[in-house]
Amino acid sequence: QVQLVESGGGLVQPGGSLRLSCAASGGTFSRYHVGWFRQAPGKEREFLGRINTVGGSTWYEDSVKGRFTISRDNTKNTVYLQMNRLKHEDTAVYYCAAGLFYSERSRDYDYWGQGTQVTVSS
Which value, in Å, is the radius of gyration of the alpha carbons in the chain? Predict the structure, then answer.
């Protein structure tokens, strides 16, 4: 059993940056791959990217590739999402999720955080 808590969201101007954190507790964090997702009002949950158990591999959707970077520090039980050159369309609730599959599918992730709001506005 793993509990995840996202933090670091907030209001940022277009072109700005934010770093989100996903802190894990209650399990062996290094066993789990982690994905980042977001959900905007009225839209389906969108997969953003993933990182494998040891952090040696990452993969990103085209919409965020080159702007977002996922990293992890297993000694701190934390995964990060660095977001640069933010756009209005990045406004959403951002979620981290942990699972045993290195996957882009929501159904392959067993544990989810509560989400953190990111609002990009001038």
Answer: 13
Q: Amino acid identity of 43?
A: K
Edge to edge, what strands does the sheet with 68-73 contain? 3-7, 18-25, 78-83, 68-73
Max CA distance (Å), the chain = 41
Q: How many Å apart are CA 111 and CA 85, to the nearest integer? A: 29
Give the pLDDT confidence of 67-115 residue by residue, as tens digits: 999 999 999 999 999 999 999 999 999 999 999 999 999 999 999 999 9
User: Is residue 47 within 8 Å of 34, Cβ to Cβ?
Assistant: no
Q: For tokens 């001038």, what's the residue?
A: 122
Residue appearing with tokens 């599918």: 105
Q: How far is CA 52 from CA 10, 19, 23, 93, in A?
A: 27, 19, 16, 22
pLDDT value, residue 115: 98
**Upper half-sphere CA count for residue 116 (Cβ side, 13 Å):** 19
**CA nearest 49: which of 62, 31, 39?**
62
